[in-house]
Amino acid sequence: MNKKWTLPLVILSLLVVGVGAVLVNHLSNTAEVKVDVQQPLTVAIEPAGPVTKYGGETIDINITVENLASVAINGTREIVITNNITNATCADFTSIIGMCEEDTGVVTITENINYAANASVTTPWSATLDPAVEPAEYTISVTVRPV
After folding, report:
1. Taking the chain, what is the end-to-end CA distance rounded to the nearest angstrom?
2. Who's near 53: CB < 8 A, 6+ residues apart?
3. 33: which of 2, 18, 132, 136 is 20 to 30 A away, CA to CA?
4. Band of the pLDDT at 26, cuts 50, 70, 90?
């Protein structure tokens, strides 16, 4: 190839590539945005620390749910109770708030919920232990699931 055509061909190639890139971007009419979606509900239990109770006594807790979304959230609240000897049953309690179900040492109390937009709600919850309940260390956890 002749040396006098090398520089003009390189310049022409760069111009064609540049114009092509500008035309493709202009003709596509495309824009994008990234959205970071987060869980709309937070949950907390009080008291948070270990509590000592005896058979026949009532376990009282406060469940606070905060709806961070700008819309109302409907769903379910599950209170799951287990113990360290893996034999928790609904019969361990003489009174309990919510519908109680059990499955192999796991007690689940399910309630329907509705939280207003941008609201924080604290709800008391209680369960009375049967006086004859076997001594054990119980763990109560709360999960809120939007539907």
Report:
1. 71
2. 59, 129
3. 18
4. low
Q: Which two tokens stand for residue 52?
A: 């000592």
Residues of the chain above pLDDT 90, percent: 72
pLDDT exceeds cutoff 60 at 92: yes
21 vs 12, residue with greater confidence: 12
Cβ neighbours of residue 120 closer than 8 Å, sequence gap 6 or more: 64, 65, 66, 67
Domains in the chain: boundaries:
41-146
**How many secondary structure helices (H) and strands (E) does the chain include?**
1, 8
Query: Which residues contact residue 115 at a Cβ distance below 8 angstroms, ignoring those fewer than 6 apart?
Result: 41, 65, 67, 72, 73, 121
- Residue 109 tokens read as 């109390």
In this prediction, residue 36 carries a pLDDT of 96
Query: Which CATH number is 41-146's, of 2.40.160.10, 1.25.40.10, 2.60.40.1510, 3.40.50.300?
Result: 2.60.40.1510
